[in-house]
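A quick aside before the break. I want you to see a complete sequence-to-structure record at least once, exactly as it would be stored in a machine-readable document. Don't worry about memorizing anything.
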Amino acid sequence: MVSGETRRGELGALLRSRRGQLGPADLGLPAGPRRRSPGLRREEVAALSGVSVTWYTWLEQGRDTHPSRQVLDALARTLRLSEAEHAYVLSLAGYSAPRPSAAAAPRTAPAHVQRLLDAQVGLAAFAIASDWHIVGWNAAYAALYPGIAEVADEDRNLLWLVFTDPSVRRLLPRWEEDSRRFLAEFRAEAGPRLGEAGVAALVERLRSASARFEAGWSDHDVRGFTSRERLFHHPRTGDLRLEHHQLTPADHPDLQVVVYTPIDDGCTPARWATLL
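That is the input. The structure line, written in tokens, reads:
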């Protein structure tokens, strides 16, 4: 386990490093007389961050201080830290990562994510954004759910399709169980974004379109995702037992890649092969 002294030393070293990489001009400060060393002065960082010089000096020295999250957020802004650096600084002080930005959810998968989906030959795979909009899929997923390409873009949302598309309901023999589980998982993932316009609009639209959604939403069930067996009933093959996995690309934490793998139950692999 990393000691508090080690974490404080790492925090101080990072602050000193980033302070040395910035000049007065970067922050709109007058250059003033020639400086003996490059970078900002501690006094400048402290003033711009709203903390005392002594306190900031102690942070750089790795002393046994306990900076608040607000102080670290202010320092991150002053020192122009990247999102990864900001999260790292917070983690060194024992805080969680910053909330994701409120940028609009993507509508299409980045090219490298789509290539990853296409590479899952023989496995149904698709990607959803933070609002569960389906942003990409591969050929095997289109075989499992043939209507995906014909769905209007504004309706191509996993939660919307589960609660409003009759063909999806027919595809899910355990629809009651699956729909409740999806709703609880959506609430867990989208909770921090419920105030955003896009997510709020989706929820209100579903509440108007589906009495089952309205009832489930009012229950306030919250469940984290776990990989699990899913049962599908495809009109061409009959029952298919697939294992449901969900992965997050490290460079796109706003996306989830979902992969269904056939379960070797004596029937599904052969049935699945005829579908592809």
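Two observations worth writing down. The longest strand covers residues 238-247. Residues 94 and 182 are 32 Å apart (CA to CA). We'll return to this after the break.
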